[in-house]
Design goal:
Shape: elongated
Distance between the termini: 21 Å
Structural class: mainly alpha
Order of helices and strands: HHHHH
Largest sheet: none
Oligomer: single chain
Number of domains: 1
Number of helices: 5
Length: 158
């Protein structure tokens, strides 16, 4: 039972981290440029960025976000091959990766945001709202880590 719970937790965790990375990529590469330049198509935005000598930094964005997915898969494999795995360890590992999603999102979005800013003379920050959703998920993951740790410690004492 203990290992089954760990396996389920690891699958849910890996899917959650992957979904976070996918939402971050869509926010950075699609939604934010479209919100920053209303009425323009993504292809038009990319053409104007290229004409200004800027790049959407697609490969860099996907690389940074892909590191989180790779780590989630590594944790999944490690949790499946270890005999001493626990649902608690899995939960804390994946919550920790979601916490790290906020700085990863910032790093991954910095280049594309500055390219938009330089091309259009606008702010390099988020123009679409989903960056706030990602930051909120990371903040909730911090709270969840604390709750999981406190509940686990209380159970051990009881």
């Amino acid at each position: 039972m203990h290992t089954d719970a760990a396996r389920v937790t690891s699958i849910v965790g890996a899917c959650g981290v992957t979904a976070y990375a996918v939402l971050a990529a869509v926010q950075i590469l699609v939604l934010n440029p479209l919100a920053a330049v209303p009425g323009a198509s993504l292809a038009q935005i990319h053409r104007e960025m290229a004409a200004a000598g800027e790049s959407p930094w697609t490969a860099g964005t996907l690389t940074v976000l892909g590191i989180g997915v790779a780590l989630a898969l590594l944790v999944l494999v490690l949790l499946w091959v270890r005999d001493d795995r626990s649902a608690l360890a899995a939960a804390l590992a994946y919550l920790g990766l979601l916490v790290c999603g906020a700085p990863a999102y910032f790093i991954a979005s910095f280049g594309p945001g500055m390219a938009l800013a330089d091309t259009y003379g606008i702010s390099g920050g988020d123009h679409a709202p989903y960056g706030l959703v990602l930051y909120a998920i990371s903040a909730l993951a911090v709270v969840a880590m604390a709750v999981v740790a406190i509940v686990s410690a209380a159970r051990r004492r009881a």
